[in-house]
Amino acid sequence: MGASVPLQSSNEMPKSLRPYSSGHSITPRGLSAGAIDGIRHGRFDRLFPETQTTAPDDAMLLKLAEFMVTSFEADGVGAPDPGRPIIEAEVSDENATIPAAYTYFGQFVDHDLTLDVTGFGQSQKDAKAVIDFRTPALDLDCVYGGGPADQPSLYRKASNGARHLLRLGDAIAGAGPGSTRNDLLRLPALPDDPAQIALIGDKRNDENKIVSQVQATMISLHNKIYEDDDFHPGIADPDVRFENTVRLVRWHYQWVVLFDYLSGHICMSTALSDFGSLETPHLPYYAAVMAKGRDYPFMPVEFSGAAYRLGHSMVRPSYSLSAANLTKGVDGAGVPNPRFPTFGKRGDDLRGFGEPITSIWSIDWGFFIDGVTPTAPPAGAVVPQPSYRIDTRVVNPLSHLPEFEGLPPERKQEANLAYRNLNRGVGLGLPTGEEVAAALKITPLSNDQVWSAGSNRYKDEDGPSEIKSRRAAITAQGFAGHFKDRTPLWYYILREAEYYGCTRELPEAYLAGIVAAGEDPEAVKQEDLNYGGQHMGPVGSRVVLETFLGLLSYDEKSFIHQPTWRPHAKLNTGGGDFTLGKLIDYALG
Asked: 13-22, 131-140, 359-368, 429-438 — which is least confidently predicted?
């Protein structure tokens, strides 16, 4: 394979694309069926033993879930926070080091990896019996489906006459560079059913109007690379060209996931170096499970059921999609709409599943991520919009998921995403946060640290504060006694991020906006440190990276098995780090 590539050396790599010299006749991984040759699905398994603690009371789980979606103000418990206009920073809530696009890119990645259809409330102690109906690989089967031979409805003819381009839907009027250009391909509405169902490889990538546009962007990326001869030197055969395109799209995507999304934003910046070289990463927990006779990669339940659910805390209650949306209501009548609610009234919010993307909903990606130039943002706009912090709070809209409207009162908790996560963790017998920390030989948070608020860099504030208010409320709820030494893993991962996660400098553009608004940047920096939650802590980082590196390592066709390959210069413009912003900018430019 050649010399090992240190995992932290991605900025020093040559950017030439290595031509393919073999394997052109092999069906690209995941196109004939699933990512595992001839197998449509994988299975879940455990990195660590099942919990040895007594399950917490369900009433306390519900109480904790409801507490997690409560807003806290300096003088006590407040009403649900709808979010402020885009010209106002929200320092206590926002994570300025992770732009909002990564929240929904993370959701897209999750849909690429896992689909557990176990019914809510069904206790599932045997993790190995839980089927993962997504291929456990970063292979974009949610985009490519079964391939053009198996699912021709997803494909259309290219300029060379081969059915190798992915279908998109209607063009979006007025969409400019850096904006979503097309809706997803949709079935027409019927007289008795107005839903316009998206024809895509995974229906979940139409569940909200942001992730649907991530899906459309990845489709656009495939189509653009396929039609560009610069990516296919010496390749004349259309089928080989298609295979080459799929590889390139997957490898650029995998690179972004590992180096930009995970190492650059979500995990501790030093965590990746603990795994050794890129070609042969040290994976003591994932490899130990594989060594027990497994033929194919697996999805750890600690990852899917807890650690990778960090994105739920990153969701904002509302989003600005573009400059045009700041002055137009959903009816186009000119009613100002500074941010669209994540969930609200159908037709006025960002929910999907049959809701077409029109010019009202088209995203200007410069409002969501660095590397894409926003079009005409208002003076003082905080763009790209930050995600919310990785902490023990989730926004109010996630406590009443719209797909569960109409549940009887005795089942209303099933619409609370926080409760669903906590309940599923108990059902799967997930180890506690303390048990996972011990297995990883990481000093766990103390009980006092878990059931507190703020980071380990907290500096006491004069007078009332939100953190003080939350600390007092946690004490009053009695969580520290009931959950002592048995913290639900999902909650522990979030609390650990809140406690440890603040080591990155705030972006200069964010601080410039703070200064323009007349605020003291040093005070803002300290407030940011007080709240924490910029990135995951040591336990969360280890579980997440062990999983992703395990999947890439046991996928013989992933980019890490091609040690000389680097992102193409056409995508990685300007050199330096290759990022999600650059990928989006190329795909939609």
From this structure: 13-22
Alpha carbon distance 354, 402 (integer Å): 14
Tokens of 247: 């590889």
Q: Is 17 left (phi over 0), alpha (psi -120 to 50) or beta?
A: beta
- Quickly count helices (H) and strands (E) in the chain: 18, 11
Q: Where are the domains of the chain?
A: 10-588
Question: What H or E segment, with its residue span, contains residue 76?
Answer: strand 76-78
State pLDDT tens for residues 222-248: 999 999 999 999 999 999 999 999 999
**Which residue type does 192 have?**
D
- The distance from CA 235 to its chain's CA centroid, rounded to whole angstroms, is 35
Is it the case that residue 123 has pLDDT exceeding 60? no
Provide the β-strand partners of residue 193: 190
pTM greater than 0.70 (yes/no): yes
- Burial class from Cβ neighbours inside 10 Å (0-12, 13-18, 19+) for residue 225 reads buried
Give the β-pairing of 42-45 and 299-300. parallel
- C-alpha distances out from residue 517 to 87, 321, 369, 521, Å: 9, 22, 22, 10
Q: Kindly state the DSSP code that residue 59 receives in the 8-state scheme.
A: H
Sign of CA dihedral 489, 495, 497, 500: negative
Chain length of the chain? 589
What's the CA gap between 340 and 317, in Å, rounded?
A: 9
Sheet holding 299-300, edge to edge: 131-132, 42-45, 299-300
Neighbours of 400 (CB within 10 A): 15
User: 3-class SS at 367?
Assistant: helix
Burial of 526 (0-12, 13-18, 19+ CB in 10 A): middle
Q: Give strand ranges (E) for 239-394.
A: 299-300, 318-319, 340-341, 386-388
Spatial CB neighbours of 472, under 8 Å, sequence gap ≥ 6? none
Distance CA 81, CA 317 (A): 7
Please say if the pLDDT value at position 8 is more than 50.
no
Strands 94-99 and 386-388: antiparallel
CB contact at 8 A, 486 and 434? yes
State both tokens at 414: 């099933």
Paired tokens of 388: 């919310």
Q: If DSSP states are collapsed to H, E and C, what string results for 148-211?
A: HHHCHHHEECCCCCCCCEECCCCECCCCCCCECCECCCECCCECCECCCCECCCCHHHHCECCH
CATH class of domain segment(s) 10-588: mainly alpha
Q: Is the pLDDT of residue 566 over 90?
A: yes
- With contact defined as beta carbons under 8 Å apart, do 503 and 268 qualify? yes
The whole-angstrom separation of Cα 320 and Cα 368 is: 9
Pairwise CA distance, residues 15 & 568, whole Å: 6
- Residue 3 reports pLDDT greater than 50: no
Question: pLDDT tens, 371-404?
Answer: 999 999 988 889 999 999 999 999 999 998 888 8
